Structure prediction request, 105 residues.
Amino acid sequence: MVSCCATLRRSAGWRMRALLVFRDHGLAIATTVRICGNRMDAEEAVQQGFAILARRASKNAEINCLGAWLHRVVVHEAVRIRKRQHSRRNEQRHDGQSVVVAGWW
Prediction:
């Protein structure tokens, strides 16, 4: 059985990569938009997922089911981005409240 990463490394290049990106990009975007809440952050999560895939392929890593693996990676990236946004918003709220309270005193 030939792994997807081996095919990706061995392929004539752009055709196989383009096919993989085209096939899985739409599904990954749809999933990450639901998690992140906006298209810009969803694109970032998907780009990170494909960057991780490229690193794995260059290290001869074995990925048996590319679609499922990529889905898991982009979901983890989207959740990471969502958590970062949430913590940033909480910091801004906290900073805003402390300024209002300090002005009131």
